[in-house]
């Protein structure tokens, strides 16, 4: 069939009557153009319109064989696990996009990634990630899988010269703070802890001093650009910083069930359930792998 079709030819192509074609133009945005007063249709544009109008249409991810796309919160142990997938004998290529937890979940919702890495705390329930999965992402039929428990807290200079003991000390005069960006799980936690302690954000010098990774925060402290910064124990250990623990959190991987049994995803699951994963977590410090690889919730 020619790339250009008239109404009769399009009706035959779609298996409908000509009257229905006019209805699709008006009501559904079927791409069409008028030439000498008659409707004409370009087949390639019609095919794209059909694709975009199809419910439950497989995303481009289904065509990325051998690739594993992950987005969300950054974590050194996750980087290790993805590197192990790349080192495997199956020739898989994992890619990680450091967006923070909230943006990672959005990318998952838009079917841009196979997995979202998240540690978002729900302040009402005290639960991690499940409320997000049950509400905004419920139509994707997700599995929430525990990656590891992490110790969140304040990274400080070695020896803790400011004598920082907890969240209340961030409001002390002369204490400079380095924070994570809005939407990051660590930022959500800090907001929650300050609210619980009844400390206004405005009282913390540098609270709007935002960076995008735990390592960036740690470097601010190491370079004497901040006295304290929000982050995980593992990163503080890597750079030899002091650390004040505030809370244990569960860091999860959210996987749509349509990808759960994909070979690339299964390879990552095998890694996080392995003994070498637990050993690496212990080497970093600040992790607990008691539930790693366990399905916490499905929807």
Q: What is the topological layout?
A:
Layout: E1 4-6, H1 7-14, H2 18-28, E2 33-35, E3 38-42, H3 43-53, E4 67-72, H4 76-87, E5 93-98, H5 101-109, E6 115-118, H6 130-134, E7 142-156, E8 177-180, H7 185-196, E9 210-211, H8 214-222, E10 228-232, H9 233-238, E11 242-256, H10 257-260, H11 263-272, H12 275-284, E12 287-288, E13 295-298
Parallel strand pairs: 4-5, 4-6, 8-9, 8-10
Antiparallel strand pairs: 1-3, 2-3, 6-11, 7-10, 7-11, 7-12, 7-13
Helix pairs in contact: 4-11, 4-12
- Give the end-to-end Cα distance, rounded to a whole number of Å: 44 Å
pLDDT averaged over residues: 89
Q: Tell me the fraction of residues in β-strands, as a range.
A: 15-25%
Quick one: overall form?
elongated
| Rg calc | 25 Å
Second CATH tier, the architecture of the largest domain: 3-Layer(aba) Sandwich
Classify the secondary structure makeup into a structural class: alpha/beta
> What is the CATH first-level class name of the largest domain?
Alpha Beta
Q: Counting H and I runs of at least 4 residues, what is the number of helices?
A: 12
- What is the H/E string? EHHEEHEHEHEHEEHEHEHEHHHEE
Task: Please tally the β strands and state the result.
Answer: 13
Specify the oligomeric state.
single chain
- The helical percent reads 25-40%
**How many domains is the backbone divided into?**
2
CATH topology of the largest domain: D-Maltodextrin-Binding Protein, domain 2
The largest sheet, given as strand count, sense and whether it forms a barrel, is: 10 strands, mixed
């Amino acid at each position: 069939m020619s790339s250009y079709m008239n109404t009769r030819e399009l009706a035959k192509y779609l298996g409908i009557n000509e009257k229905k074609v006019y209805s699709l133009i008006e009501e559904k945005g079927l791409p069409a153009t008028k030439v000498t007063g008659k409707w004409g249709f370009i087949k390639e544009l019609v095919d794209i319109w059909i694709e975009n109008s199809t419910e439950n249409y497989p995303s481009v991810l289904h065509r990325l064989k051998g690739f594993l796309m992950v987005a969300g919160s950054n974590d050194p142990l996750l980087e290790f696990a993805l590197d192990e997938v790349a080192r495997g004998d199956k020739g898989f290529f994992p890619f990680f996009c450091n967006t923070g937890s909230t943006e990672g979940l959005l990318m998952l919702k838009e079917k841009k990634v196979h997995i979202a890495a998240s540690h978002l705390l729900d302040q009402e329930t005290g639960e991690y990630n499940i409320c997000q999965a049950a509400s905004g992402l419920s139509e994707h039929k997700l599995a929430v899988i525990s990656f590891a428990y992490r110790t969140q807290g304040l990274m400080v200079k070695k020896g803790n010269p400011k004598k920082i003991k907890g969240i209340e000390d961030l409001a002390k005069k002369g204490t400079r703070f380095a924070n994570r960006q809005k939407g990051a799980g660590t930022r959500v936690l800090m907001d929650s802890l300050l609210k619980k302690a009844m400390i206004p954000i405005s009282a913390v010098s540098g609270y709007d001093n935002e960076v995008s990774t735990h390592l960036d925060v740690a470097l601010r402290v190491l370079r004497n650009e901040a006295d304290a910064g929000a982050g995980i124990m593992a990163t503080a250990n890597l750079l030899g910083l002091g650390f004040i623990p505030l809370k244990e959190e569960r860091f999860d991987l959210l996987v749509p069930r349509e990808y759960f049994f994909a070979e690339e995803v299964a390879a990552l699951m095998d890694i996080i359930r392995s003994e070498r994963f637990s050993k690496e977590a212990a080497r970093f410090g600040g992790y607990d792998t008691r539930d790693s690889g366990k399905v916490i919730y499905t929807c």
